[in-house]
Structure formats: C-alpha cells, structure tokens
C-alpha cells in the first residue's frame, strides 16, 4: 500500500512536471520581446525625394495602434519605433543601427525603398536581425542563400519586367521601346526583366534607354531623349516623384507613347494627380490588391474592414490611395506572422514563420491571389494582373499572371 502511494505520488509529480514544462519551454525570447511587449523598428522617408511613401508608414503605425487597442498580439503590445531616413542610404544605416543597438528591436519591418534596404542588408544579416517584408521588389531581397535574414514583400521587379515584355510582344510586336530607369537595384532589375522577357528581340525593339539619379532635380532631358529616339512604347521604371515628372513632360512635348509604369508609382494622389489626370489617361501597370476607388469592391467584406480602419485610425489619410492599402496589407501580414510565432518570439522563429506561409489571403488580396513562401522561395507575391488608368481610376484587365520561375 505504501509502495502504491509512493508510485502514485511520483507519477503525479512527473505528470505535473511534464504538463508545466511545455508551457515554460514555449516562452522563448530574443532581444526586443518580453511577456508584455514586442519591439519593432522601421525607417520611412517622411521627408526627401520619396516622401510620397510617408503615408505607408503612417498607415502601418495606425494599423499597429488598432492591434494594440484590441489587446495586441498574443497578449503583447507592439512598440513600433519609426525613424525618418529621407530615403538617404547613409541615414538609413545610422537609423537602423540605432534601432538594433540602442532601441534593441526584435526585428525591422518594411524598411521602405530599394537603396535604403540595400544599405543595411549585410549589416542586418550579420547581426541576424530579420529584415522582414522589405518594401522593395529587387531580387537581392528574395535571396535566401546569400541573405537568409532578409525577405521582401513586393512582387519581384524582374518578374514584373518580364510580364510587361510579354504584354508588349503580344500587343505591340513592332514597338520601338524607350526605357527610363532609376540608377539602382530597382531600375536595374526592371531593365533586366524587360530585356529577358523580350529575348532576342530586345536588341531591335529597344531604341533608347536612359537612367536618372535620385538626386536629380528633374528628368526632362531624359524624356526628350526618349521621344527623340522615336520610341512609341515608354517603359517607365521609376518612383513617384519622377514618374509624375515623366507623365507631365511627355504631355508637354506632345509625346503620346504607350506608357507602362512600374508598380511602385501607381498612386493616383501622389503621381497621377500631380502629373494631371488627363495626361495620365491610358497609363498601364500591374496590381495585386483591391483598389478602394473601384466600385467592384464596394460590398466586399475585406474592403469594408479597410475603410472602417481608415475612418477610425487614419482619418487624415487618403482612403483611395494604393499606398495606404499597401500599408494596411503589409501590416496585416506582419501581425499574422507574429501570431504564428506564439510564445517563441526569437528572431529565428520570426523568419521560420515568414518563410513557411501557405496560401495566405489578406483582406485586400484580389480573388484568386494568395501569399505562399518557403525556405527556398522568399517571394510573398508572385501573382499580378494588368491594369489601365482611365482618367479617374485604375481598371484591371486580363487574367491573373503567376510567375513560378526563379526569383531572379
């Protein structure tokens, strides 16, 4: 009997120990995470040549405020630290070092822009700090072999360039193509994608290509050069300020090519309105999310959630801005990853969760589109649809195009 009591007591003690150990084992933290807080850092061009993107950061901060008001993520509030880097890589380096070494964030989220992300990519990978959902589509940010701690969010620029090339070959097989591109990884990737997509025809179809620097005050001379070369298709691989200048200058010159604009510069408020809505009519690009200005989505549940969020948490923001829908969607995905981390808030687990997404559908994803990643494929968005500006809003056309090839 005494032996029976001994064994029962021992078994009970073991059972209690086993039931307690998983709970304690699940709580794993790296710098920047505690039982009550998750520290996340970001740089945003609140000023400078790419300040049109500032609203993205504002929308993201508003979304995180909403999450915190609703109790946070798994009971933890997010401490979201944002610094202005003015889209200047040296400033990005300074601010990201501050985030990592002084603020001690768990991860960086949505650092905005290709040059800023490139400036800190090696540093963050050496430090093994997640460069999560970088706001760029350059191929170097979806390269798990060389940069395992970096994952981009935007569709791959080379993929996008190849899609435009396919569109041109099908609809304008005899086109004379003029290309404007930003002289950095963003522009170079688009140029590579376009040439790859055109294949052997690139040499004969591309009649002129010209670049600009972020520090350039205008691109008037570049537009004059492309027009003078006789281009009747204009591939514009630029960012908002310069895209608006390009549209306006082309109109001033009376040059009316088929104008294909990259996905980074499709904002109606930040690009097309300043350039002139009539001047912008007919511009072609791609999309991978619902457009609030499109009446197709007026009864859509996801769109209703977005509009309610904007009304309550970012009332000063332009609800129709694709930059704000981008900010909403990227932050929704961030929260999804953090939820999946549970009580294992280590930097490694953040990357594990971000690189094992399966058919994730966000509120503003187009029907038929979802996000999937793997340890060997860091591309979140691999599906696009063509769209055309009608003078008032963007209108999607054609099928959803999915890129299943290599990320580069």
Automatic annotation (TrEMBL):
Q: Where would one find the signal peptide in this protein?
A: 1-25
Q: Which domain of life is it from?
A: Bacteria
Q: Which SUPFAM superfamilies match?
A: Periplasmic binding protein-like I
Cell membrane: is it a keyword of this entry?
no
InterPro entries given for it? Leu-bd, Peripla_BP_I
Domain called Leucine-binding protein: residue spans = 37-390
User: Which Pfam families does the UniProt entry name for this protein?
Assistant: Peripla_BP_6 (PF13458)
- Sorted UniProt keywords: Signal
PANTHER family reported in the protein's UniProt record? BLR6548 PROTEIN (PTHR47235)
Q: In which family does this protein belong, per the annotation?
A: Belongs to the leucine-binding protein family.
Return the protein name. Answer: Amino acid/amide ABC transporter substrate-binding protein, HAAT family
Q: What is the lineage of its organism?
A: Bacteria, Pseudomonadati, Pseudomonadota, Alphaproteobacteria, Hyphomicrobiales
């Amino acid at each position: 009997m005494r032996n029976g009591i001994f064994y029962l007591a021992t078994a009970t003690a073991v059972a209690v120990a086993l039931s307690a150990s998983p709970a304690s084992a699940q709580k794993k933290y790296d710098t920047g995470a505690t039982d009550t807080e998750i520290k996340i850092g970001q740089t945003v061009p609140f000023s400078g040549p790419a300040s049109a993107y500032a609203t993205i950061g504002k929308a993201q901060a508003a979304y995180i405020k909403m999450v915190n008001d609703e109790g946070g993520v798994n009971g933890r509030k997010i401490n979201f630290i944002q610094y202005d880097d003015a889209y200047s890589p040296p400033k990005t380096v300074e601010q990201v070092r501050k985030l990592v070494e002084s603020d001690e964030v768990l991860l960086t989220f949505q650092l905005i822009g290709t040059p800023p992300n490139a400036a800190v990519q090696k540093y963050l990978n050496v430090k093994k700090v997640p460069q999560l959902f970088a706001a760029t589509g350059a191929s170097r940010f979806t390269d798990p072999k060389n940069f395992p701690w970096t994952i981009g969010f935007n569709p791959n620029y080379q993929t996008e360039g190849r899609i435009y090339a396919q569109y041109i070959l099908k609809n304008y097989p005899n086109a004379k193509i003029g290309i404007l591109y930003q002289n950095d990884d963003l522009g170079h990737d688009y140029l590579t994608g376009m040439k790859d997509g055109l294949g052997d025809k690139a040499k004969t179809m591309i009649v002129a290509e010209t670049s600009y620097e972020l520090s350039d005050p205008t691109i008037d001379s570049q537009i004059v050069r492309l027009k003078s070369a006789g281009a009747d298709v204009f591939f514009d691989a630029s960012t908002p300020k310069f895209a608006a200048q390009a549209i306006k200058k082309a109109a001033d010159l009376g040059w009316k090519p088929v104008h294909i604009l990259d996905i980074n510069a499709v904002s109606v408020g930040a690009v097309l309105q300043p350039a002139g809505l009539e001047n912008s009519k007919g511009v072609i690009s791609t999309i991978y999310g619902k457009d609030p200005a499109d009446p197709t989505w007026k009864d859509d549940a996801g769109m209703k959630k977005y509009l309610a969020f904007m009304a309550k948490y970012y009332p000063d923001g332009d609800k129709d801005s694709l930059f704000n829908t981008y900010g909403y969607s990227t932050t929704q995905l961030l929260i999804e990853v953090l939820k999946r981390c549970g009580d294992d808030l280590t930097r490694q687990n953040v990357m594990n969760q971000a690189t094992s997404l399966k058919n994730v559908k966000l509120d503003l994803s187009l029907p038929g589109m979802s996000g999937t990643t793997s340890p060997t494929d860091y591309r979140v968005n691999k599906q696009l649809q063509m769209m055309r500006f009608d003078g008032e809003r963007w209108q999607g056309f054609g099928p959803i195009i999915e890129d299943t090839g290599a990320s580069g």
